[in-house]
Amino acid sequence: MTTTTTPAAKAPRRIPGPQLPGLVSGVTLVLGCGLVVLSLHGDYGTPTGFDAPWNDRIAGLAAAALGLVRVMRKTTLLAATTLGAVLGIWLLTAPMLVDYGFGVESTLATGADVVAGVAIASLSVLGHLHAGDSTASSGGAEATRDRARSRPGENRRDRIGARRHG
């Protein structure tokens, strides 16, 4: 028994080079885990109440969860971008809002939060812009929806003709 594959049944061709959506998810996940580990083992100075270590643990867990949700594709792009941007901006401003202090003891916490915040926020926004560009260059949302509905042995022109005449 021989099987034939139709062009529609083939796996989609991947563009060579880095894939930005996977990069955004992976970096968000790694930075979140890094913040948690750093907050547990880094020298953050003398802890006082809700301060840098607790902020980094909670924000790190949130970033890791966002990265996992993005990897599993269990969220919309807009929601993931919004959460990533908000989380990144929080990490960027937390050293001033939570008052880490600006001494030698807070340098590690401040530096880690600023780097993670800038990376998460900017990659989230760039990932969203990249997805918008790839949708626009592939014919927009309607073409993407049509490709998702395609059946083996049927091409897009046949479906469009069937809609107009049917």
Automatic annotation (TrEMBL):
Residues that span the membrane, as ranges: 20-40, 52-69, 76-98, 110-129
Start and end residues of each stretch annotated as Disordered: 133-166
All residue ranges annotated as the SPW repeat-containing integral membrane domain in the record: 25-124
Organism: Actinokineospora iranica
Biased composition (Basic and acidic residues): 143-166
Keyword Transmembrane: yes
Pfam families: SPW (PF03779)
Annotated protein name in UniProt: SPW repeat-containing integral membrane domain-containing protein
Keyword Membrane applies: yes
Keywords, in A-Z order: Membrane, Transmembrane, Transmembrane helix
